[in-house]
């Protein structure tokens, strides 16, 4: 059955520049390694998305998924305007180099920097000033995507779990408890305690709450951090510390015996 708009799916893809066929992104670890773009900090797995929704994919690719069949590989050419947009000369700005240093940023050509909430690339440094290109690195580029829909999600519970997993990559979903109440439309997400050490946890929670509201219409999202201190109940039997087949001799003053 063809995929339709607003269906929830998981896709595998490999993305290339049209101009030279260079691979710059993929969901598959073997491809990343063979193309020498492997990132050990990244989890390689199929990408969750809602068909036609540009919150998950670039516009051209989001629309291209409509009508695809499950496990049927397809190749799409996405022109720049439907990918990361055309390059805009107004997004190239000159700033004082001391401003970068004051923000603890390294003013060297080629460095990516975050300044005033925007990401950019330093393209020139000199005379106490730095030129920063705030265009997306792929702006103005036509792209090629090899795409396969590997899973079609239809159960509400499965969709919820995938949306949550997306914000906590690598976590075992068996460690997360989800409870749904209809009055009001509330979802409670219980998280294992080790996640308190996760970098960017507050942002992940905020983003997840927003997605559960926007995509699944929940009015209230609750997060519960679980600290399970249950202890194993003691047994009446004393542990046998002897080797099998070994008998304790009378008068044996082993550490297990009390000596008076």
Question: What would your notes on this structure say?
Answer:
Strand 10 (177-181) and strand 11 form a beta hairpin. It is built from 5 helices and 12 strands. The chain has helices at 29-34, 59-64, 97-102, 156-167, 201-216; strands at 8-17, 23-26, 47-50, 74-78, 92-96, 112-115, 118-126, 129-133, 143-153, 177-181, 186-192, 220-226. The termini are far apart. The relative contact order is 0.13. It is an alpha+beta fold and 260 residues long. The chain folds into 3 domains: 1-85 and 140-154, Chitinase A, domain 3 (Roll), CATH 3.10.50.40; 89-133, Beta Barrel (Thrombin, subunit H), CATH 2.40.10; 155-230, 2-Layer Sandwich (Alpha-Beta Plaits). Strands 1, 2, 3, 4 and 9 form a 5-stranded antiparallel beta sheet that branches.
Tally of separate helices: 5
Tell me about the biggest sheet? 5 strands, antiparallel
Overall helicity: 10-25%
User: What would the principal axes of the Cα set say about the shape?
Assistant: globular
In CATH, the architecture of the largest domain is Roll
- Distance, first to last CA: 82 Å
Any idea how many domains?
3
What are its keywords?
five-stranded antiparallel beta sheet; alpha+beta; globular; four-stranded antiparallel beta sheet; Chitinase A, domain 3; Alpha-Beta Plaits; 260 residues; 3 domains; Thrombin, subunit H
Summarize this, please?
The chain has 260 residues and is of the alpha+beta class.
Q: Helices and strands in order, then pairings?
A:
Elements: E1 8-17, E2 23-26, H1 29-34, E3 47-50, H2 59-64, E4 74-78, E5 92-96, H3 97-102, E6 112-115, E7 118-126, E8 129-133, E9 143-153, H4 156-167, E10 177-181, E11 186-192, H5 201-216, E12 220-226
Parallel strand pairs: 11-12
Antiparallel strand pairs: 1-2, 1-3, 1-9, 4-9, 5-8, 6-7, 7-8, 10-11
Helix pairs in contact: 4-5
